[in-house]
Every structure is written in structure tokens, then in C-alpha cells.
Design brief:
FAD/NAD(P)-binding domain; globular; 11 helices; binds flavin-adenine dinucleotide; 8-stranded mixed β-sheet
Amino acid sequence: MSREVDYDAIVVGGGPAGSICAFTLARKGHSVALLDKKKRDRIGDKTCGDALDKQTVDLLKENLGIDEPHGKEVSDIIRYMSIAANNIDNKATLTAPGYVVDRLEYAKRLLDLCEKEGVTIIPQAPVRDIIVENNQLCGVVFYQGNEKKSLKAHLTIDASGSYAVIRKKLPESMRYNGIISKEISPDMVWPTYREIIELNEGVKYHQWKNEIVLLYEKSIPIPGYFWIFSKGDNQLNIGIGWLKSEKNMPPLKEAFLKEMKKYYSQDMYRVLKSGGGQIPIRPPFDTLVFNGGALVGDAACLVHPTTAEGHGPALESGYYCALACDYALSKGDYSDNSLWQYNRQIMNHLGEKHAIGLLIRQFLENIGSNGLEYLIRKQFFTNEDLDKLVRGQKIKLSVFEQLKRVFRVFPKWGSILSLQRMIKSIDVVKQIYSQYPENPNELEKWRKLRNEKLNWNF
Ligand SMILES: Cc1cc2nc3c(=O)[nH]c(=O)nc-3n(C[C@H](O)[C@H](O)[C@H](O)COP(=O)(O)OP(=O)(O)OC[C@H]3O[C@@H](n4cnc5c(N)ncnc54)[C@H](O)[C@@H]3O)c2cc1C
């Protein structure tokens, strides 16, 4: 039955996920409103490590003709990612092409593109509630100044990041028996603290040009880490984070400053920006769609559970969500069933990759930073192995290669057993995620199998 609507689609949040979703939908000829609580010129500004992988940028270029970050949008071109344990010099390095971006500058271009494509951007419009009719999301309630307003649409997309304003308001009947949860459990969320610093003139130029480094440290419980990302000639993006569930930890900033002292004393740099943020680091919900809408980006928990990379996944999810919405709008069917192809697209790629990310996280938790230090020192992993693991691919070793490596880490074989367990589970994940159901009716059966085989309780 056709309803009166203001727009075909409403997108809540103008970060990477929301802007690409709105842009793609408008490009397909749909009327779209994008609401954000921030002022127009601040939308997209976000406390972040600022790293963005090239793969996603290529996807946007190929499919939407959106140019890669350039000019002042780019702080540094990234070629390598290093994983260090207990000491920054004890590291394994893999090729990881990408960018460290200026989030605000890059976001401004995406929003300008949205406007050119006909998206109505409504800034300073915090969404406070949703409109649900007959078990279907039909729009949002928001404020402009003190004025309470509402908008209706066929489809409403939650791109509000970790705030997840729509997700948190969905009634129980639309949550698939809790599969889409309101809150994220504290052992799946990372609070963080980050600074962008500029080194004073005369201070030795940093050694991390073109590189991002994740440092696993005894004092930072895994999967938490300290990061140092190059941000151009004399700037660095540095931060720290660990799970919200960790007890007896010092304040994040205190731990950050203690770690920083190992590299730069406070008179060697000035702080350009500082802040914190929450990162949901669990695999995505098992469905990201419901009647009348969908979740994208951080609202859908699309952040890699080991690296905490979420910018690329947010952009990618915005694109694939828009394709599914375009299909639903063209059919005039706004049900979860009609949007289901978005689930399949995500689960076959990011879902699988992030499920493997959780296995890597569990492996790292098992061996600890000392175990990782040992494996790196003994050059147990080749760069190719690490590259594959981070990309969610399987490591294959010949019997000879396995033996060679086993002897290399003598006598600490515990970590090899953990590694073997992880490799076996990666096989299971690959098999299960490639069989993600074709419609909502099969979802529960699929989940049961996945949880049984991996001993998970999502
Ligand atoms: C400290 C830190 C470091 C990180 N480092 C990296 C990194 O180096 N690389 C990487 O890939 N990822 C990184 N991430 C993750 C990355 O920042 C996110 O995954 C990404 O920004 C998610 O994009 P999004 O569009 O889903 O949400 P966001 O970028 O959070 O955008 C959400 C938007 O919604 C708006 N909004 C929120 N609530 C409402 C409301 N009620 N009404 C209206 N609008 C609303 C906000 O104003 C915002 O503009 C990091 C995150 C943090 C916190």
C-alpha cells in the first residue's frame, strides 16, 4: 500500500557511511534527505586514526566515479602496516596501500557531491526518535533548534555511527529476537584516546613516514593497542585504546602520555587536536536490514575486530546498502526480504573478513603480547601470511614449511597450537559465511550452526 512520504529515503548521519549511501541513492534517481546533528561545515569531523585503505577508495572510483582522496584531503600516502610487540623495533611489516586522510576535508567533498546529486542536507538536526507503523520504520523525529519536526520516507537508514540512534529505538518486534541489539557488550567496545601532534622544529623527523604502526604492549590488554600513524612530514596521529570491559586500568590519557614519553617528551611537540571515541569491534549483526530500513557503518558494527578499521567498511556498506534500497524502491516493496541482498553482499565479504578478525583477536588474546613478540622475533610469520590474515584470507602451509616454522619457535609450541586452532576456525568461517541465507526465514538456522561450530553466542 502506498503511503504519503516526504522523501524516498532518509539517511541519518553524514559520516562516510551516510554520505556514500545518500549519494548513491540520489545518483539512482531517488529523493533523499540526509540529517546530521552537526553544523554543515563540521559534518564528517571525527576523532579517528585517519587511515583509509586503498581497496575501498578504488571501489568508489570504479563504481561511482568518486576520485581518490587528494590535495589537502591527504595527510600521507600509506604503503606499510607494521605490527609490533612490546617494543616498536620488534615488528613485522606488511604492504598495506592506503591513505592517512584529513577526515573533515574528505567528508566535505563527499557531502558536496551529495548536494550536487540532489540530496537535501539538513544540518544541526539531531534525530531523537523514530516513527514505526505496522512493524515498519517510516521516518524520524528530530529537532531544529527547539522545534520538534518529523519526516517520513519509504526507507530510513541508520548511519549515525556508534550512537546508532535508530538501532537503539527499534522496537523489540523488529530486532529479530535480539540479533540486532540496542547496546554492544563491553567486551566488544573500545574506548579510545587520540592526539594529532606536530613535532617542534628541530625535533628529529619521525621514522614512520608512509607507515602505520600498531603496537601491542604488556601494559595494554589485547586486543587494545597503541598506534602511531604518519600524518605527513612532521605530524603524527597517535592513540590508545582497550576494551571497555577491562578492569583496574588507568585513565586512557594517563596511559597514553606514559607511552608517549618513550618516543617524545612533551616539550618536543604541540598537540593540534585531541579527543576520544568509542569503536564497536564485534563482527556485524547477523542482519543489517528490517522492514523499512537498514544499518550501515559503525551503527551496523562494521569495524574490523583486530585492526579497528571502520572508515573503509563504512563507505563500502553505504554503497551496497544503497544498491539494495534502490532495488526495494524500484519494486515498491520496503520489507526486510526486499532489502536482503544487502545482507548477502556484506556477509560474503565484510562479514566473513570481520568474523576472521574476531578469530585473530582471540588468537592474540591467547598468546598475549609476549607470545606475539616471540613469534615476530623468530620471524614465524612471513609478510605474506600477515597480509592474508588481515585481509581475511587463509594461510596455506606445506608440511615442510610447517615443520620448519615449528622448529623455529622451539620450545614455545603453545602459540603454534593456538595458531592451528585459528586456521581451522578460519576454514569454518569461510564455509559458513559463504552460505549466508537467501532470505530471513533461514537466518535462525544459519546462526545456530555458526554459533555451534565456532562456539560463539552472537
Ligand atoms: C579514535 C578512533 C580511531 C579510529 N581509527 C580508524 C582508522 O585509522 N581507520 C579506520 O578505517 N577507522 C578508524 N576508526 C573507525 C572509524 O572512525 C569509523 O568506523 C567510521 O567513522 C564510521 O563511519 P560512520 O559513517 O558509520 O559513522 P561516523 O563517522 O561516526 O558518522 C556518524 C555521523 O552521524 C551523526 N549523528 C550521530 N548521532 C546523530 C543523531 N542523533 N542525529 C543526527 N546525526 C547524528 C554524527 O554527527 C556523524 O556525522 C577509528 C575510530 C575512532 C573512535
